[in-house]
Amino acid sequence: MTKDNKATPMYEIKHQDLSGLLSDITDICHVAGKKILEVYETDFTVENKDDNSPLTLADMAAHNIICEHLSSVTPDIPILSEESSHISFDERRHWNQYWLVDPLDGTREFVKRNGEFSVNIALIEGQKSILGAIYIPVSGIAYTACLNHGAYKHEKMEAKPGYM
Label partner for 49 (CA 20 to 30 A): which of 6, 86, 134, 152? Predict the structure, then answer.
């Protein structure tokens, strides 16, 4: 914020750069998904968040991986994750673009071990998603979409060699 309480302008991703960014985002989903599966194969514990929803080591590990990589790829774009500490609306209302992340969507299903969970990352601009990736770790299937470039299903997705 500036001294007169106006939002400080921040870097924004240009629409023509979205398709190039999508590969990085799907790789981040894959890396987080691999970590989730590592935890899935263990005798993990379950805690409850303040809203009584479940929280596991997989949620936090995926959150940390995603936030670290998004911050590396797009350091000036803020991240709002389900597992983040609360970020006030007063701060968020000044964001024109931000990453919206659910590092482990379907934690209850993860706990039930039924395979029905995913890693979700979206780039929001002006309250609309302009880029998104959903990765299902158990099947290896990913769904990706980006403004002006369509939506795609990827079977048995793998991260680029050397990506983490």
Answer: 134
